[in-house]
Write a structure and sequence with these properties.
108 residues, mainly alpha, globular
Length: 108
Amino acid sequence: MRKVPLRFQEFSRQNPRVSEAYEDLSAECRDAGPLNEKERCLVKLGIAIGSGMEGAVRSQVRKGLDAGLKPEEIRHAFLLGLPCIGFPRMMAALTWAEDVLEKDEPGA
């Protein structure tokens, strides 16, 4: 499992009740349906890509790798977003993902 970003750790220290409530909500949403961990990661990655949120894209790529997604599966999610969000936005999001993927791949 990858390290939680320092910014989130600090937020959690400063706002423990909010952080706990957020984690509880996340768990309830996760457990509310039939999707497995990899499927949930891909859905959340797609949402992050479509919303153009850099931190969320990076986080979901890390979580996807932790869940066992292969880099090519993650990269495919970005291609699927191309017709929906356009080339420039897809490329921006892919750039954020590649920062994470390149650190994770052997020889990087």
